[in-house]
Amino acid sequence: MHSSKPPGTRYCIVVKGRLSDRYGSAFEGLRLEPLRGHTALHGPVVDQSKLYGVLNQLRDLGIELVSVNAVD
Q1: Which parts of the chain are beta strand (E)?
Q2: Sign of CA dihedral 15, 38, 24, 8
Q3: What angle do CA 41, 9, 30 make, to 5 degrees?
Q4: In angstroms, what is the C-alpha Rg of the chain?
Q5: What pairs with residue 34 in β-bridges?
Q6: 2: pLDDT strictly greater than 60
Q7: Residue 70, phi then psi, degrees to nearest 5
Q8: What pLDDT digit, counting tens, does each position of 3-62 carry?
Q9: For residues 20 and 3, what is the distance between their CA atoms, to the nearest angstrom?
Q10: Other CB atoms within 10 A of residue 39 CB
Q11: Degrees, nearest 5: CA angle 30-36-40
């Protein structure tokens, strides 16, 4: 039986500030959720290399990282 669940570990990455919808395409495969004073990026990340790629992209855009958590 095949699962429709995307491969990889699901993450919740929280950053400081409110990211506009234009950042949605910058973080392909991750859903942006506005929080009070922060934005959460949710979704599957296929491997550690891809996770570091997302974190490097946040750094390159000058976006402050608050937390990174693997979720069930």
Answers
A1: 9-16, 31-35, 38-45, 65-71
A2: positive
A3: 25
A4: 12
A5: 39
A6: no
A7: -75, 140
A8: 555 678 999 999 999 998 888 788 888 999 999 999 999 999 999 999 999 999 999 999
A9: 32
A10: 19
A11: 15
Alpha-carbon distance 36 to 53, whole Å?
26
The tokens for 29 are 């495969």
Buried b or exposed e, range 8-34, using 16+ CB within 10 angstroms? eeebebbbeeebeeebeeebeebebee
The whole-angstrom separation of Cα 21 and Cα 4 is 26
pTM here is 0.86
Lookup result for tokens 């390159």: 60
